[in-house]
Design a protein that fits this description.
The complex is a heterodimer of chains A (about 180) and B (about 500).
Chain A: H1 2-21, E1 42-46, E2 53-54, H2 56-63, E3 77-81, H3 86-96, H4 100-113, E4 121-123, H5 126-135, E5 139-143, E6 152-154, E7 156-157
Parallel strand pairs in A: 2-7, 3-4, 3-5
Antiparallel strand pairs in A: 1-5, 1-6
Helix pairs in contact in A: 1-4
Chain B: E1 15-17, H1 23-92, H2 99-126, H3 130-159, H4 162-273, H5 279-309, E2 319-321, H6 323-341, E3 344-349, E4 356-358, H7 360-377, E5 383-392, E6 399-407, H8 428-432, H9 441-451, E7 455-461, E8 465-473, E9 489-491
Parallel strand pairs in B: 3-5
Antiparallel strand pairs in B: 1-7, 2-4, 3-9, 5-6, 6-8, 7-8
Helix pairs in contact in B: 1-2, 1-4, 2-3, 3-4, 4-5, 5-9, 6-7, 7-9
Classes of the chains: A alpha/beta (about 180), B alpha+beta (about 500).
Chain lengths: ~180, ~500
């Protein structure tokens, strides 16, 4: 009982530290700082995954850990890129609709409460994400369309592919420094 | 002019003989050592070529076996290493929680399993024996089964489900990988067996090569020994024969000289002692001395002539000669002897015969020897015929002039035929019949004929007679005949 209370306190402390490191404040979305857009963002899954189309709401449920299994029973493994990457920012903004700290806090709380079984895997590069998705049948990740190859499958979101004009997931505009 | 009765000839009784050309034995004898050396060198060259080819074949087989074994074992070793690398890299992913590192390990295991898959496919492609194909197919199936489990294990590791990954690997991955390892050991064992078999084949090939080498060398040695033995025996035989002939010659000449010399000595003693008185007795003694002196002179001349004919081809000036002039010249030289012996001479010369190429005096001497021979041994029939005609040569490729001397003497025994042209040879019948001679007449005639580019042959039948034929090449095309200058036959 004492160990469980200590674990809870440690998790709360870690969440507080992470929320202080987050670039944006609670409830704030990363805002584009330039008029130049970098293109759309592709959501990719393993080639063996029977799913090929998701609604934006379903995608949000997946990325927030609310949905943990694919229709074939495979456990969903979420693959994220490291914080600060434009792709991650786009997913947080357009899919999760939360900032980095909220996202982290949500998963920490989920792990703590048992609502989330596995935290997202974090990879440094788009190539790493692609290889991860290739190796894990239940994995789902994101990357720029230019990084996609035949080893992974691109999902339609609300019936649209990244090449479609009405596709809703876009990378944030380039930051002017 | 009348024609005498021809010499009766029965095919199954008449013996015929043509002596080999005098140059051939000399040539062979002179160059026999060189020919033998050439033969041995040729044999050795053949043997060396054979041995080199055999060793080259063995060497090629060894190289092939070495390449096959080394490459095969290297490939099996590579397969074993890559299979271990596949599993090792998968297990490495278990040792970290860093997803980036885990992805790198996943890359490594997939690259290794790709090499193994390619290696198995290559092995199956090169497999020939049913056992190889069977083991290769089993290895391929086991490898695919292991890879499917490996993929699940890898996925579990990447998902973060380490316990599941370990449990799956222990329950399924380890047994399947053990089967793969056993399959690879089986493949290696098959390679070892085949390498041993090929090694045994190479050893057998090497043994066979050595056996062949020894066999061929032994045969060559035997052959060379036989050649040397034959050569030495021929040389020894020739030497012995020459020595025997020289002794016979000395004995014969001594005998031929002794008789007239004894007569001369006796006549000289009688003259010196004053036993001879009166003109008539003196004339008789003078005649005896003259005849015996001529006999000695003739014998000495014959010996000198034989000596000069032994290598005398270059000494003669060859020019076209009319056959009739040769025959007439020869008969003129022997008329006295023919008359004295009381022989009948029949001469038959075909009209318009082409000229022959030769030396007039040499051909005349040759014919005289044949006529003299007929006078010596034709005492029984006291008839001689000299005939000349144009005929096809023995090889029928050209025409030749044949001048033959016939007699009706005792004939020549078949066993004596091969030797009658040997110098100093006297047949037992001639010796027993006390027929004078040094055994040089026929050898001289043969040497002279060959010096003119012709040859000498004999046909004989015991109790009937003999025919010696001089074969001479025509000096110009056979259709060009000289005008007839003599009658068809002359009888003296």
């Amino acid at each position: 009982m004492i160990f469980r209370s200590a674990k809870f306190v440690l998790l709360l402390a870690a969440a507080a530290v992470l929320s202080q490191r987050a670039p944006a404040g609670r409830g704030e979305f990363p805002q584009p700082k330039s008029s130049e857009t970098l293109g759309s963002l592709a959501i990719v899954v393993n080639q063996s995954n029977p799913v090929s189309d998701l609604s934006l709401a379903e995608l949000r449920a997946v990325f927030l850990g609310e949905r943990i299994h694919w229709p074939n029973g495979r456990r969903i493994t979420l693959v994220m890129m490291e914080p600060g990457q434009p792709e991650r920012d786009a997913v947080l903004r357009d899919v999760c609709r939360m900032n980095e700290s909220d996202f982290r806090r949500r998963f920490l709380q989920g792990l703590l409460t048992g609502e989330v079984l596995v935290s997202p895997k974090t990879l440094a590069t788009a190539v790493g994400v692609r290889k991860f998705v290739f190796n894990v049948p239940g994995a789902i990740g994101y990357m720029r369309p230019a990084d996609v190859d035949a080893s992974v499958k691109v999902l339609r979101i609300d019936g649209r592919l990244p090449t479609d004009e009405t596709y809703e997931l876009h990378l944030p505009e380039r930051v002017d420094r | 002019m009348s024609r005498g009765a021809p010499l009766p000839q029965t095919a199954n009784e008449v013996s015929s003989f043509t002596p080999p050309l005098g140059r051939t034995p000399g040539f062979l004898s002179r160059y026999s050592s060189a020919l033998l050396l050439l033969l041995v060198v040729g044999l050795e060259a053949g043997v060396v070529q054979f041995v080199i080819r055999d060793f080259h074949s063995a060497n090629t087989e060894v190289q092939s076996m070495y390449a096959w074994s080394v490459l095969g074992l290297r490939r099996i070793g590579g397969l074993q290493y890559d299979a271990q690398e596949t599993r090792r890299s998968t297990l490495y992913a278990l040792t970290t929680n860093d997803s980036n590192l885990q992805v790198e390990y996943a890359d490594q295991t997939r690259e290794a399993d790709k090499r193994v898959t390619e290696g198995i496919a290559e092995y199956l492609q090169q497999a020939r024996l049913p056992r190889e194909v069977e083991v290769g197919n089993r290895l391929q199936a086991d490898w695919v089964a292991y890879l499917s489990v490996r993929d699940e294990v890898l996925a579990s590791i990447l998902e973060g489900s380490t316990k599941e990954a370990v449990a799956l690997d222990l329950s399924q991955g380890v047994p399947l990988f053990d089967r793969v390892r056993q399959d690879l050991e089986e493949v290696k064992r098959l390679y070892d067996e085949q390498a041993s078999q090929r090694l045994a084949n190479v050893a057998a090939l090497a043994r066979r090569s050595v056996t062949r080498l020894f066999g061929v060398l032994f045969c060559t040695l035997c052959l060379a020994s036989v050649f040397v033995w034959v050569l030495q025996r021929n040389k020894m035989s020739s030497t012995l024969q020459l020595a025997r002939m020289q002794m016979d010659f000395v004995a014969s000449v001594s005998h031929e000289l002794r008789t007239p010399l004894a007569v001369l000595c006796s006549a000289a003693d009688n003259l010196a002692d004053g036993v001879v008185s009166g003109k008539e007795q003196l004339a008789k003694y003078s005649s005896v001395i003259r005849n015996q002196s001529r006999q000695i002179n003739g014998l000495v001349n014959e010996v000198i002539l034989f000596s000069s004919t032994q290598n005398g081809k270059g000494r003669y000036v060859l020019r076209p000669l009319q056959v009739s002039s040769i025959v007439v010249s020869a008969i003129d030289g022997t008329t006295e002897l023919i008359d004295k012996a009381g022989f009948t001479l029949q001469q038959e010369i075909e009209p318009s015969l082409p000229c022959v190429l030769g030396d007039s005096s040499a051909l005349s001497q040759c014919l005289q020897n044949l006529v003299t021979n007929a006078l010596k041994y034709g005492d029984r029939g006291r008839w001689i015929a000299v005939r000349a005609r144009l005929a096809d040569s023995k090889d029928r490729h050209r025409q030749e002039i044949q001048i033959s001397v016939h007699d009706r003497g005792a004939g020549i025994d078949r066993s004596d035929l091969p030797r009658i042209f040997e110098p100093f040879y006297r047949s037992p019948a001639a010796v027993a019949g006390q027929i004078h001679g040094a055994g040089l007449g026929l050898p001289i005639a043969k040497s002279l004929a060959e010096a003119m580019g012709g040859s000498l042959s004999v046909q004989t039948e015991v109790g009937i007679g003999s025919v010696f034929t001089l074969h001479l090449p025509v000096a110009e095309p056979s259709n060009r005949r000289v005008p007839r200058q003599e009658g068809p036959s002359v009888q003296i």
